[in-house]
Structure formats: C-alpha cells, structure tokens
Amino acid sequence: MSWVSELTRYVELKPRDGEILRALRPGVEPAFDGIVEDFYGRILSHEGARRFLDGGKPQVERLKGSLRAWLAEVFEGRFDRAYWQRRSRIADTHVRIALPIPYVVGAMNRIRLRLTEVVRSLTRGEPSRQSEALNALHRVLDVELGVMLEAYESLRLAAAAARHRADVVAIDEAARRVSGERRLAEVLDEALAELRDRTGADSGGVYILAEDELRLEVSHGLPATFPPRIGPSETAIWEFLSREGMRLGAARAEGGESPRSGKGEEGTAALSLPIHRDGRWLGTVLLASPAEERFREESLPFLRAMVSQVAMGIEYLLLYDRLRASEAHFRAIVETAPEYIWTMRPDGRATYLNRGFVGLSREDLLEKGLPGTRALFVDGTLEGFEEALRGVFSRGEAILGIRIRLRPPDGGEPRSYLGNLAPLRGADGEVAEVLGVFRDVTEEERLRDDLVRSERLAAVGEMAATIAHEVRNPLAGAKGVLEILAERFPPESEERSVIAQTVERFETLSRLIADLLLFARPIEPQLRSVEPAVLLRDLAEALRREEGLRGLEIRETAAKGLPRVAVDDVLLWMAILNLANNAGQAMEGTGEIGLRIERAGDRIAIRVEDRGPGIPPPIRGRLFTPFTSTKRRGTGLGLAMVKRIAEAHGGSATAEDRRGGGAVFSILLPFADR
C-alpha cells in the first residue's frame, strides 16, 4: 500500500500523533457508546441510508460493535500496514453493498465532528495540548477517508475495466464465428433468397423476435398487408407465424381482408417456417406464392433443414449485434470517463489510450509511449512508476495507489495523477500487458492543502487569542519596568546595554503578537471598482511617502486598455506595502522597486519586482506558508497575510525569480464585472 505511505507523509501523520491519541484513549473511550448510538440513530432516521441495513436489529447491533472496535483502534495509535489493510477491507464492504460515496463522506464527517467535541472537552484550558490532539485526530481521519475513497474508486474502476475487457473478448469471438463484419440483415437476405429460389415463392420476409414482438428484418416484395411489427395481441397472425404451416389467401396485396383475420381469397398461399434454436423461438421465415405454385408437402423437410442451418448463424449474429451495441456503449463510457485508461506492453509502448492528457493528444502518446515521455515526469516519480510497472509484469499482481507528476511539454504547471496498475494476461497465462487507470488529482491536492492550511489557521487563531490574553499585558508591563530600570544606569554602562537588548527582544515578541492577531482576524473586504492605472498611481505615490522606502526608487508601469478591478483600498495597501518592504530589505535599502499592473489571462496582475538575490530554493515552495521567513527578526506572517488578502478578493498570490536577478511577487485579482 505504497500510496497510503505517500498519503500519511502528505498529511504529516507521524508516530507522535499515535502517542497523542493513545494518551487520550482513557478519556475518549467512555464517549464511544454515545458516538455509536448517534451514528446509527442518524442512519436509521434517514430513508436513503436505512435501506442498506436490510438485516434488521441483529445486523445493526453487529455493526455497532464493529464501529466501537474501529474507534478503539483509532485511539490505540498503531497506524501500521496491518491497520490500513483492515481499513481497506471496510471500503471493500462499502463497494460490495453499493453504498454511495456521499454516505461514506457524510459518515466520516459525523464521526469527526463528535470526536472533535470530545477531544476539545478533554483538553479544555490546555491550548497547546488541545491543538496537538486535534491535529493528530484530523490527520489520521484524513488518511482514513483517503483509504476508503481510494479503495472504493479503485475497485469500481477495476470492475468496470474487467467488464469492458470481457465484453471485447466476447465480441471478437462472436465476430469470428459469423465471418467477421457481416450483418444480420445480410445473412437473412441470403437465406431468404435461397429459400425463394428453391420453392419458387414470388415474395417473402423474415421476422425476428425482439422484446416480445416480431419485427420484419428483411422483405422481398412482401405484401403491405404484413405489417413491419406484430405483437401478441394480434392473435391470428401471431399464432400463424409461431407455428409451421400454410394458409390460403393470406398474402393478398390489395383488397379483401388482412392476414390478421386468417380469411381471404383462395388465390395465394403463405408458408410460415419458425426459426428455433435450442428450443427457443428466434423468429419466422415467411414465404408467399401464387395458388398454382402452392408449397408441396414433400418440400417441407428440405425447407426445415434450410431454416435449421441458418438458425445457428442468426443466433450468433443476434448475439454479435447485441455485443457490438454493448461494446459501443462501454467504449463510450471508457472514452468519456474522467479517468485516463490505457494499456501498455513490456517495452513501454501503449496499445490503447482512451484520450490524450498532459498537453499531448492520444495519437502523440500512442506513438511516443513511455520511452518518449520520460522527460515529462517530475519530482522523482518516474523511478517509482517504472518500478511498479516492472513489478506488475514480473509478479502478475495489481499495484494500487501509484502517484505520478507530469509537466506539459509547453512548460506549464505540473499535474498530479493517482491510479492503479493491473496485469492483463494472454492466452498462455503470462502477463502480456498492464492496464493503467489514473485520474487527475491536482485539484484534490490543492483542496487538501487548503483544508490542512485552514486547520492550521484555526489553530493559529486559537493560539493568537491565548497569547493576547496571557502574554501581551505581562509582556508590556515587564518591558516598562526594564525601561525604567535602564534609567538608573549610565548610558555607556554594560547593564544598560543588556537591558536595551532585552527590551528589543520584547519588542520583537510584541510585533509577533500583533501579526498573529492580524493574521487570525477574519478578512471581509469592502470592494470598490477602480481604473487599474489610477490604482497603480495611488499605490506608487503612497510608497514614495513611506519612511522606510525613502532610499529606493519606485518605478511604475501600467498596461493600457485594462478592465476595471474591484479592490479594498486598505487591505490591498497592506499587501503591497508588505511586498515593497520585503523588496527593499532584499536590496538592503537601495535600488529600484518595479511596480507594474497588467493583464494575466482573465485576471489583473499587480507585480512588485526587486533586484535582490532572488528567492532561496529551500523555501520557494512554502513562501506563503505561515512562519516561513528569511529575515533574522521576521515573524513569517507577512507573505501569508498577502495571500489571505489576495484570496479574500477572489484572487491569488504568486512568486517567481526575475530574469536578470531578483524576484517578482504578484497579486492576481479578478475583473470588476466578475
């Protein structure tokens, strides 16, 4: 279960989390019964969910015991391979009973909320311990939900792929038995022509039984009185066509009564030859002839033998048509599936691909195969992917949860894909190909990042409130006392220098508290529509008046013809000032700061450029994460606040190295009419 290891690393689930949850178990365990009763009380009160519990009270009691054991295992804190395998088997049960995914997610969320309440209650008054406990709980429940959803999706896709594969094999076999691409109508037409020639019938037709009615599949001059569709309610003609026999006057083309009545003029004859296969009625051959050429009794054995010979071909062709329609249906499902489904030979060449992806067409990918696309893999995922492929070919076992990252050939942002590999065996039982079913999880990863960040921000908010209450006032008092104490020593004394250093550290702590409170406070922008050029001019003039930026040149550039943009002046100024201060510090107080506004796709981009040393590679991927800073006395909340302000406007924040040296930080905002 390599993908589980990847997921636990991603959500940062560590052995320490297991120890934290294990320590909570004595306090949490008494609440298990209440959580279980609440959980199944909700299910039994909901009609849609209740239908999956068809075993009555014994089944409910059994499931309650399973849920208690599940909760107990969570707080045992031993998250080893065996633990996750047991979780995967739970998901297998969900698939087997066809439990919809929304119920799985809803159930996990209900348990999460109840456990969160219990943990908060147990750790009330201990902010640090509470934060640790809630983070540990959310991490393990995130992995739990991931295991359930991934196994659910993998089993569903594997089953669909297996059904599709079986259908294709059956279609190929049926096609070989009926000489390839021949159609049912072609075979029936040839059979009817042969029978007419042998009997001298001047007209005829073949009815095929489908969906409880007879449908005229082929007609050679059959009178219009024989309708194209006949149902059981048309008793006379239905009975005539279901039994072998001849009727006079049944084939009149004009005037008189229709063959439904079984009466008519004695000038023509119609012969019914039912088509049977293994005791099943497939349809009927109908032949019509003038009275003087009535069908002779001695010709019937020959006609029966002829019909019997074509019955087998008809059956297979009917099956072939049904399978062909089924194959087209399943192909349409596969071709339009959101997942990327492909098959690959041992040499890395693709033999099938349902559609193109990562910026390449299906034709390009089929031509290039794995050898021609290795350069697209990033973040070291090529090695793991190739190792998994070799494992499937050598051991013949499916491997689930393979994660790869691919960068489009045009150099765009990498995309993440998660999927499974399964062996496809040839006639000799050896693995001939590997089936891959992958899906794009880039947006899911972003959403997961947002969820993790939201949880961390919530923890920061709680911590900020605690710090403000417990630390701010005593800190201010201690700082004041030290400042008074410093006055008792001469300016050049060592004691006064030590006190001054201590006061400076207190001021750093005060700034951290202020930043934390600002960061934790909800942002509700008051937007107004402005011209981008006017907005840029106002921002540049305000920066030139800033005391800390007096030694820097502010150079502004505005593109023409830009649509209006909606901004909160105060919040945007905070973000731009933060970026400008960072730029000034990167250039050590001298140089030029570029302030530029331009169009970036469907957004307006406000860019702040410097000519400093650029972005250090170790922190490039987490620049906008709280508490990330390169400054000796920085709090690490400035860029995180810039990102929050951008997102509050419905936009985003980015950072990249500047060509020629330095860095470019951008705030991307939607147009005012969006």
Largest sheet: 6 strands, antiparallel
Overall 3D shape: elongated
Please, how many helices?
A: 18
Helix content: 40-55%
Structural class: alpha+beta
- Approximately how much beta-strand content do the residues carry? 15-25%
Q: Total strand count, please?
A: 18
Mean pLDDT: 80
Span of the ends, CA to CA: 44 Å
Low-confidence sequence ranges: 163-181, 250-265
Question: Mind telling me the C-alpha Rg?
Answer: 39 Å
- Write out the strand line-up for the largest beta sheet, numbering strands in chain order: 3-2-1-6-5-4
Explain how this protein is built.
Helix 7 packs antiparallel against helix 8 and helix 17 runs antiparallel to helix 18 (638-648). It contains 18 helices and 18 strands. The chain has helices at residues 2-10, 15-28, 32-45, 47-50, 56-74, 81-96, 101-122, 127-177, 184-199, 235-242, 300-336, 362-368, 381-395, 442-486, 494-520, 532-544, 569-586, 638-648, and strands at 203-210, 213-220, 229-230, 245-248, 268-277, 280-290, 340-344, 350-353, 399-406, 415-425, 431-440, 528-530, 552-558, 565-567, 591-600, 603-610, 652-657, 663-670. Helices cover 51% and strands 19% of the residues. Strand 17 (652-657) and strand 18 (663-670) form a beta hairpin. The protein is elongated, with a radius of gyration of 39 Å. It has 674 residues and is of the alpha+beta class. The longest helix is centred in the first third of the chain and has 51 residues, at 127-177.
